[in-house]
Amino acid sequence: MGLRKKSTKNPPVLSHEFILQNHADIVSCVGMFFVLGLMFEGTAEVSIVFLTLQHGVVVPAGEALTAASKTLYHYGVKDLATVFFYMLVTIIIHATIQEYVLDKISRRMQFTKAKQNKFNESGQFSVFYVVSCIWGAFILISENCLSDPTLLWRAHSHNMMTFQMKFFYISQLAYWFHGFPELYFQKIKKQDIPSQLIYIGLHLFHIAGAYLLYLNHLGLLLLVLHYFVELLSHMCGLFYFSDEKYQKGVSLWAIVFISGRLVTLLVSVVTVGLHLAGSQTLNTDAMSGNVNVLAAKIAVLSSSCTIQAYITWTLITFRLQRWIEDSNLQASGVKKKRSTTKSRSSRKGTENGVETSNRVDCPPKRKEKFS
């Protein structure tokens, strides 16, 4: 999943190969178009919609519980434009990491084509998961989620988000949306596209769900847990690609994986099933944040349980398939070794360890000459 090396021959402009080779430069030009729009009065208002967070409301000091007024945000249609712009930024960052970091390491390690694709994928995801885990943990600490766990099921005043919370979710949506054009840019095989689409779609569904239902802190905590487990997975993969003696690390990750799924389910059930039950309302206006009804709770719990079961089942089937393949390889190796041993023993004139009559133990005796 890396950048395609530019060949000595320049392909025709706007051809398929030209776009694949220069997609990062093309996307950079599109992004600069929005940035340059800030320089002109007629286009500045349109460009701001793409570059900055929208739907902000200045909350007075008394309502924001601070000494000064504070700007909080809710979501709206204009967020789609912001997500689109930062999707372009993500594509550029993806290409930069690929060209200046992962490609150089791949050339030095001399990976095979299959290993190189896996290495590039794990490398890209590892960078994203590291940044997301650190960023998410910083938001949880700065917004006192650890000291006040009730924030997991309570929204801010007027059911709004802080700047850093909204920007985090916008960035997350932009990253997973950028996965769709990357399927084309990286020439993903047709048989791999359905699994990639499911993987991207599941992340988008749950991130957007937490964003639209104002379950921002709960969604953030679950994302950090999920990304941490996925980070360990890809880090084990990177170590395994560099040296196959780290196979035990992959097995150790399976234990961490199951533990992460259990913790995610526990947090979801406790938060949604218990603490949201005390304040049900009949008003289901999502824009006002009043989604604390039985249908919404069932939907959230069902979605969380379904995705955890799906991910766990995928891991189990993968491990079983790998175990069956390894067993078949070992069995074929034993059979091949036995057949080789039998062929060698037959050439030596033995059968089942018993000497045959054709075997010659010593050279024939010379006839004595009598004078």
* Gross morphology: flat
Structural class: mainly alpha
Question: Helix content range of the residues, please?
Answer: 55-70%
Number of separate strands: 4
Enumerate how many helices there are, as a single number: 11
Order of helices and strands: HHEHEHHHHHHHHEE
| Distance, first to last CA | 90 Å
Question: Biggest sheet: strands side by side, in what order?
Answer: 1-2
Compute the average pLDDT: 78
Strand content: under 5%
CA radius of gyration is 30 Å
Question: Which stretches are low in confidence, meaning pLDDT under 50 for 5 or more residues running?
Answer: 1-6, 350-364, 367-371
Mind summarizing the main beta sheet?
Answer: 2 strands, antiparallel
Would you kindly provide a written description of the structure presented here, covering whatever features stand out?
With 371 residues, this protein is mainly alpha-helical. It has a domain at 16-243. It has helices at 16-36, 41-51, 61-64, 79-109, 113-142, 163-177, 179-185, 193-212, 216-242, 247-274, 294-347, and strands spanning 56-59, 70-73, 350-351, 354-355. A two-stranded antiparallel sheet has the order 1-2. It has a two-stranded antiparallel ribbon with strand order 3-4. Strand 3 and strand 4 form a beta hairpin. Helix 4 crosses helix 6 (163-177) and helix 8 (193-212) runs antiparallel to helix 9.
